[in-house]
Design brief:
The protein is α/β, with parallel strands linked by helices. It is built from eleven helices and six strands.
Length: 342
């Protein structure tokens, strides 16, 4: 009898918990629907949409202001000739790539596809100053160049940040599969420079920390000259066939480079998302990212929430909050830059 009572009580408790979860999910969906209906009605009536929480316009930090500032600067001077790196070839588009124009990313992908698995094609982005996007055929190619730096900067499931990937020789041969890969890269120059300096300093005592020949060449022939010319920049990389990842990485660049964009995202995460939704984000991203790093977690949150196309991450938050965050960013200065993907 006692065990029956225990089972009944446990079942009732489970039903209460499940009922609360369903109510919370329903409330989130209804809130998002209410925002969408309100905005739709105001737009139809020719009215300005009601300001949303965290929507704080700043004329000097709007997307238009950033674009105006970029027009007053010379374009990033990418190398005029291809760079050959131990069997890989990096080539560069002479003009900035307007990712919000139909066919622009498709043309860059076509140029990457025209080569083989050793080809990397890069272009500066017109809409996001000081950002360079590189596309390649084989994800191994991109990982030979950037995985060790990305892992040191962000950490991984296998190792914390500021940890050099062991067995670096596995990341030094274009013909051998590397042991671990990621699908895309978003690398901010201050972080890349910190990795470069740390690797040089540690190399004498720890061979595993030394830059491989791909890394040495890409720093010396591309990244260090770019930094000397322009200072901070963002380097993005993705396989040309992974269109959703290309869009995801472009969203990362905006979080790095646009202070207003980053402030709105952070405010939205902290003040608009209920705690249950924030905890869902932490659980979801914690499988692949260091969620103890608040900058990294918020950056990944906004990129997965806003990206076009399929992703296994944040399915419920995407349904409930994506439209609301996009509108909040729009009201805060015309963000985000949403690329037209192939």
């Amino acid at each position: 009898m006692g065990s029956k009572i225990y089972l009944i009580l446990r079942s009732r408790r489970r039903w209460r918990l499940e009922g609360r979860a369903l109510l919370a999910a329903a409330s989130s969906v209804l809130a998002a629907l209410a925002v969408a209906l309100t905005l739709s009605a105001e737009t139809a009536a020719g009215e300005e949409p009601t300001p949303l929480p965290c929507a704080t316009p700043s004329p000097t930090q709007s997307r238009a202001a950033y674009e105006e500032q970029s027009r007053n600067l010379p374009p990033i001077a990418l190398p005029a000739l291809p760079i050959a790196i131990s069997g890989l070839e990096l080539s560069f588009r002479p003009e900035p790539l307007a990712v919000t124009q139909s066919g622009a990313i498709a043309a860059l992908a076509k140029a990457a596809r025209a080569g083989d698995y050793t080809t990397v094609v890069c272009a500066a982005l017109a809409e996001i100053p000081t950002t360079v996007l590189c596309l390649f055929d084989d994800i191994v190619t991109g990982n030979l160049l950037f995985y060790r730096a990305a892992s040191w900067i962000e950490g991984s499931r296998a190792a914390p940040a500021r940890h050099f990937v062991d067995g670096y020789e596995s990341y030094a041969d274009a013909l051998k599969p590397v042991p671990r890969t990621v699908d895309g890269f978003d690398l901010f120059w201050p972080d890349l420079k910190a990795y470069y300096d740390a690797a040089l300093a540690a190399c004498a005592q720890d061979r595993a920390a030394c830059l491989n020949r791909f890394e040495s060449a890409v720093f010396e022939r591309l990244l260090l000259p770019l930094a000397a010319e322009r200072g901070n920049f963002v380097l993005l990389g993705a396989g040309y066939g992974r269109t959703a990842i290309i869009g995801h990485e472009i969203l990362h660049a905006q979080y790095f480079l646009f202070p207003r964009y980053r402030a709105v995202v952070d405010c939205y995460f902290d003040r608009v998302l209920p705690e249950a939704a924030r905890e869902e984000v932490r659980r979801d991203l914690g499988a692949d990212y260091d969620i103890a790093n608040p900058f990294l977690m918020r950056n990944e949150f906004q990129a997965y929430l806003l990206q076009e196309g399929e992703t296994q991450h944040l399915p419920r938050p995407r349904r409930s909050y994506r439209a609301s965050l996009i509108e909040t960013l729009r009201q805060s200065g015309g963000f985000p830059v949403m690329p037209i993907l192939p």
